[in-house]
Design goal:
By secondary structure, the protein is of the alpha+beta class. It is built from six helices and four strands, in the order E-H-H-E-H-H-E-E-H-H. It is elongated, with a radius of gyration of 20 Å.
Length: 174
């Protein structure tokens, strides 16, 4: 349902920052910022170990931590782009690891902001270092959205029994 945040991705961005020919204070600031997120995600391993030694389980997340981190990363990205433009004649490419990760984090946080209900779970795979948001049922959100429309057409040749999927999608009985 959401992009996955992974320890490997954070580490790859840190590694990429170290290889850039920019000023060392900028590299250090970016590395330290990303290290905070790496440490937070890694600390979720402690929670999964407490829960019957599972490799993958639901975990509590501090939503305000992620939203604050996202704001800090956005500020850093602006500094990064300014520095990039000072050292080259062109902007960073779209596949730049920091920009790609920033986009992924933005999507993760936008889903996270709207996930404070029992319909969502935060899942951490300690073995792979992956954190994701799982939507167990979209019915409440879809039902609220569909109330904004006069009519909604939903069709499928494979959804059966129809009444079950109608309820799962939050569609009215008629």
């Amino acid at each position: 349902y959401s992009p996955i945040l992974s320890l490997r991705e954070v580490w790859n961005v840190q590694k990429a920052l170290r290889t850039l020919p920019f000023d060392k204070p900028l590299q250090t600031a970016g590395f330290q910022l990303l290290q905070q997120l790496f440490t937070y995600i890694q600390s979720l391993s402690n929670v999964t170990q407490i829960i019957k030694h599972r490799k993958c389980s639901t975990v509590p997340l501090d939503i305000s931590y992620f939203l604050n981190f996202h704001r800090q990363l956005d500020r850093f990205v602006l500094r990064y782009i300014r520095s990039y433009l000072q050292h080259t004649t062109h902007p960073p490419p779209p596949h730049d690891p920091l920009l790609r990760f920033s986009s992924q984090l933005r999507w993760f946080c936008s889903v996270l902001e709207n996930s404070e209900s029992s319909e969502f779970s935060y899942v951490y795979d300690a073995e792979k270092g992956l954190l994701k948001i799982l939507c167990k049922s979209a019915a409440p959100k879809l039902a609220a959205q569909m109330k904004c429309f006069y009519a909604v057409i939903a069709q499928s040749a494979t959804l059966s029994p129809l009444a079950y999927f109608r309820d799962m999608l939050g569609l009215p009985p008629t």
